[in-house]
Write a structure and sequence with these properties.
The complex is a heterodimer of chains A (109) and B (116).
Chain A: E1 3-5, E2 9-13, E3 18-25, E4 32-37, E5 44-49, E6 53-57, E7 60-65, E8 70-75, E9 84-90, E10 103-108
Parallel strand pairs in A: 2-10
Antiparallel strand pairs in A: 1-3, 3-8, 4-5, 4-9, 6-7, 7-8, 9-10
Chain B: E1 4-7, E2 10-13, E3 19-25, E4 32-38, E5 45-51, E6 57-58, E7 67-73, E8 76-81, E9 90-97, E10 105-107, E11 111-115
Parallel strand pairs in B: 2-11
Antiparallel strand pairs in B: 1-3, 3-8, 4-5, 4-9, 5-6, 7-8, 9-10, 9-11
The chains are: A mainly beta (109), B mainly beta (116).
């Protein structure tokens, strides 16, 4: 079956760095997306990885290892507004996104 | 990035009534639109995939006669919740795929449905 595994909740301090890990199993693979979702709002796109390696975009970076079925999202210089849920969503062979429950990130001053 | 709108953003209705939610891609043509439902603190649940000009493909366990989907054009898809009941109260989110090389999905802002 298809499965996503992320920590349910993480806490970090403003200004620090946090890494949110994601392991996945899918039927086929067409890349992996990371989305941010604030409470009561729809997800917004953060990153897309289809090849192995690290993609950096400002304060956010995303890493993918296809052979390990593993990805992480790295957030630097954390700000209070980064408090949200972070959703790892691989795309299967039918180009459908597979969703887990996400990781709720709590930023403390 | 591409913009997707949803209307209404919030709706409160009485049990037994029907509610229509619109999803529009504003600056691109979406060959495929998706309808999701999300209950509090749970993951997004795909309800159906909608392709322009053809019948929607519903996920297992989603009643197609209760959740009517119409994708009449490349920029508009509608979801109608028929004979809504309190258990249908949820956050309904649509997304649209541009069909570019990334197959990225752009999400609408969501519709909060409350059935009394």
């Amino acid at each position: 079956g298809q499965n996503i595994d992320q920590p349910t909740e993480m806490t970090a301090t403003e200004g620090a760095i946090v890494q949110i890990n994601c392991t996945y199993q899918t039927s086929g693979f067409n890349g992996l997306f990371w989305y941010q979702q604030h409470a009561g709002e729809a997800p917004t796109f953060l990153s897309y990885n289809v090849l192995d390696g690290l993609e950096e975009k400002g304060r956010f970076s995303s890493f993918l290892s296809r052979s390990k079925g593993y990805s992480y999202l790295l957030l630097k210089e954390l700000q209070m507004k980064d408090s949200a849920s972070y959703l790892c969503a691989p795309m299967d062979s039918n180009y459908q996104l597979i969703w887990g429950a996400g990781t709720k990130l709590i930023i403390k001053p | 990035g591409a913009v997707v709108s949803q209307h209404p953003s919030r709706v409160i209705c009485k049990s037994g009534t029907s509610v229509k939610i619109e999803c529009r891609s504003l600056d691109f043509q979406a060959t495929t639109m998706f309808w999701y439902r999300q209950f509090p603190k749970q993951s997004l649940m795909l309800m159906a995939t909608s392709n322009e000009g053809s019948k929607a493909t519903y996920e297992q366990g989603v009643e197609k006669d209760k959740f009517l989907i119409n994708h009449a054009s490349l920029t508009l898809s509608t979801l109608t919740v028929t004979s809504a009941h309190p258990e249908d109260s949820s956050f309904y989110i649509c997304s649209a795929r541009t069909g570019d090389e990334y197959n990225e999905q752009f999400f609408g802002p969501g519709t909060r449905l409350t059935v009394l």
